[in-house]
Amino acid sequence: MKKLLCILFLFPALAMAQEIAVLKYSGGGDWYGNPTSLPNLAKFCNQNINTKLNSRTATVEAGSPELFSYPFVHMTGHGNVVFNDNDIVNLRNYLTSGGFLHIDDNYGMDQYIRREIKKIFPDKELVQVPVSHEIFKGPYSFPKGLPKIHEHDNKTPQAWGIFIEGRLVLLYTLETDLGDGWEDQEVHNDPKEVREKALKMGANIVNYAFNN
Predict the structure, then answer these.
(1) Confidence band (pLDDT; 50, 70, 90) for 152?
(2) What percent of the chain lies above the pLDDT cut of 70?
(3) Is the dihedral of CA 119, 121, 123, 128 positive or negative?
(4) Are 175 and 157 in contact (CB under 8 A)?
(5) Eight-state DSSP code of residue 40
(6) Could you give phi then psi for residue 107, rounded to 5 degrees?
(7) Which helix (DSSP H) or strand (DSSP E) does residue 198 occupy?
(8) What span, in angstroms and rounded, lies between the C-alpha atoms of 51 and 157?
(9) What is the 3-state secondary structure (H, E, C) of 70-134?
(10) Peptide bond into 139 cis (omega under 30)
(11) Burial 20-52 (b: 16+ CB within 10 A, else e)
(12) pLDDT value of residue 188
């Protein structure tokens, strides 16, 4: 709760409504992919972990001052990502001021996003988030780490992160495709249990972003 009050102070828009947003970026990648993902995740969180998220999730540009209105920002896509100098400074300030960015590779953005993350934090390295990290402990338990939602390259799901003073501020999920699991059932025809795993892991990420 103390951390949440801190976030409310840093992000005054939350005093009226708790909102999460999709990050719009340049480079040609489809930042707009998975349009039903965040609304469904917000609904699941509201019903199951007592959040009060606006189900009409926003879109925010990487270089916009509006970025600071959202304590949780989600980014996805299949291809190229380019952050300009203003985007880089804005994202760095956002993440060092209490913000949280979740990047979910929808397949094909790995080589590009790693390059751009390095621009944001040239003095830091992406490190694998251990399965012992609290983001895998609650509200739902994932003792083996990220669930596998969609098959890409027959690799184990990977959670990569940037930590600042012990806090995970950027989570990059690879070889899992959580966002596809959050979409409406008819989009990918995933079984109920697979979608449930994706939504529960998403709830853990939202919970961590709001309370740490």
Answers:
(1) low
(2) 90
(3) negative
(4) yes
(5) H
(6) 110, 110
(7) helix 192-211
(8) 27
(9) CCEEEEEECCCCECCHHHHHHHHHHHHCCCCEEEEECCCCHHHHHHHHHHHCCCCCCEECCCCCH
(10) yes
(11) bbbbebebebebebbeebbbbbbebbbeebebe
(12) 64
Single-letter residue type at 178: L
Task: Give the pair of three-digit tokens for residue 51.
Answer: 């959040």
The tokens 């001052």 sit on which residue? 65
Q: How far apart are CA 212 and CA 203, in angstroms?
A: 14
- Cβ contact 159:171 at 8 Å: yes
Q: Per mean pLDDT, which range of 52-56, 71-75, 109-113 is the poorest?
A: 52-56
Looking at the DSSP bridge assignments, the partners of residue 74 are 22, 102
Tokens representing 169 are: 């501020």
Q: pLDDT tens digits for 112-134?
A: 999 999 999 999 999 999 999 99
How distant, in Å, are the alpha carbons of 77, 79, 83, 132, 142 from that of 28?
9, 7, 11, 36, 34
Three-class DSSP category at 152: coil
Give the 3-state secondary structure of residue 46.
helix
Q: Which fold has domain 2-14+21-211?
A: Rossmann fold (3.40.50)
Number of residues written out for the chain? 212
- 3-class secondary-structure state, position 52: coil
Vertex 123 angle, CA 116 and 68, to 5°: 60
Domain ranges (residues) in the chain: 2-14+21-211
